Amino acid sequence: MARIDVNHVRHSYLPNPQKDADFALREVHHTFEDGGAYALLGPSGCGKTTLLNIISGLLHPSHGELLFNGKDVTNLSTQERNIAQVFQFPVIYDTMTVYDNLAFPLRNRGVPEADVDRKVRETLEMIDLASWAKKKARGLTADQKQKISLGRGLVRSDVNAILFDEPLTVIDPHMKWVLRSQLKQLHRRFGYTMVYVTHDQTEALTFADQVVVMYDGGIVQIGTPAELFERPRHTFVGYFIGSPGMNVMPVAIEGKTATIGSQRIELPGAPRTAAGNSGAIELGIRPEYVRLGRDGMAVKVSKVEDLGRHKVVRASLEGREIAAVIGEDESVPAEPKVLFDPAGINIYADSWRVEMGA
Amino acid sequence: MEKTWNNKAWFMVLPVLLLVAFSAVIPLMTVVNYSVQDTFGNNVFFWNGSDWFTEILESERFWLSMVRNLIFSFIILAIEVPLGIFIALNMPKKGWGVPVCLVLMALPLLIPWNVVGTIWQVFGRIDIGLLGYTLSALGFDYNYVNDPTDAWVTVILMDVWHWTSLVVLLCYAGLVSIPDAYYQAAKIDGASRWAIFRYIQLPKMNRVLLIAVLLRFMDSFMIYTEPFVVTGGGPGNSTTFLSIDLVKIAIGQFDLGPAAAMSIIYFLIILLLSWVFYTVMTNVDAER
What dotted CATH number matches A243-354? Predict the structure, then answer.
């Protein structure tokens, strides 16, 4: 197991990158602590797989360096870095048995056959495939194949980190839960450093202790699932996490008051927007904190979506689309009005969150 | 409930029936007809039973052609399959080199058989051919017209030149279908170049290789035009393969009965081999 330091890493797929836009990974500077479970979350093309491949050594970064436990590994090959990676589509060696698949990485490294046997049997127990050991790997289901890919990493006891590149994409929904909880269990029992790339927020939030949200080649926020939900640092995090995403609307700020059109909203504190900040000021509030009732600002309800557990009300406030979440048994009043729960209000300047003073 | 009979459906299959009848069944039956009768011309036929078959199966000449043909097929397979895999492995996977290589590889396949034969017939001549003249000028005793070994070498070289591309293209198609993740996983697992070939590339080429072997075996077992143009089956009978022999008997000597019997035996052998290949291939599939 290892602590992974990503030091000012930038990467471009172009031979001669000039502008910022040429970089698939603008600049990432982050430490993955030893034994942590991290999720890299972001939309397609945000650079999360690039970052993962840089950690595993399949890509060499254009700039910056990578440390494992303080040792520079930037120029080491994938094999020398001793990491495990599970890919989007299960990679198994078709012609081998399940047993031989797991033994493959050890045999390649010249481990004595007695040790291979012991390690493979242990791993088979861990991934719950002991009864399949003698079967040809190609006859297995997608989730079993994915477990074999994982097992080929686990079988090396000295592996530095286990990296997952959207590993549950091809797995049936009901098996996703099973596999994810098995992963969690493995993490708790053996304390592997795990980095899990996904664009599915549920997967990221349930798997990881720390979620790294990436957007447009950079990290926009690192935090626990609760932090990402309550205090999105960037409006993108607000949109991307939560369903429906955060309501974001342009406002004017004066002291402890925000104005949208003719409506005034009291804030819990005065936002500390930098002096001379010319950028757009926005107010963000999650639909869960929008209270629909008979008091507050008048809205026009356009649609009510019944999701089974709760309802999502789509409405317009001062001409802006806004969503609110209400309970399954609540109904929309005749003259609907909304109030913003102060605990859920965040203020953004230039899309970045600003702190509010007392 | 009474069934509705609609006999119009039969008219729909009629074109196919006619086509197959005229292209396959009727010619085959004509051959069967010849194979059991004898004639002295004037369209007078005598029933001959299985005599022609016995004659062919007991003739040394038939078995020698057969053995030559099998040896030929074996040699070209032993050269073309490994060579084809080797070339396919070393072809570029992306960039401008891909179309260039593909066109170069496809070129020999586009040349008609008799033209290939003519090219090599001229190429190998010691008086004007580039290959033959160069070899003799360098002091090699090369003459495919007189020397059986030289004739064999020329015919085999010609077939390798003409058909290795087919194996290459099939293998290449198998190789490019392997997702990158396999190579990345192999790197992570610390696999050697050989292990990557043995456990990733070869299994993925498995099916196309079977097709390649089947096609090349069948083609070489029925080979006629190219060696006929280059050597005419000589010197002596050294490059007389089954189909050349068959034509010699049928057209050269006008022994229609034995030729027909030989055709049928030849046909049955190919049918048997096709069946064996088919069974092997479907068994491989079932194992998956």
Answer: 2.40.50.140
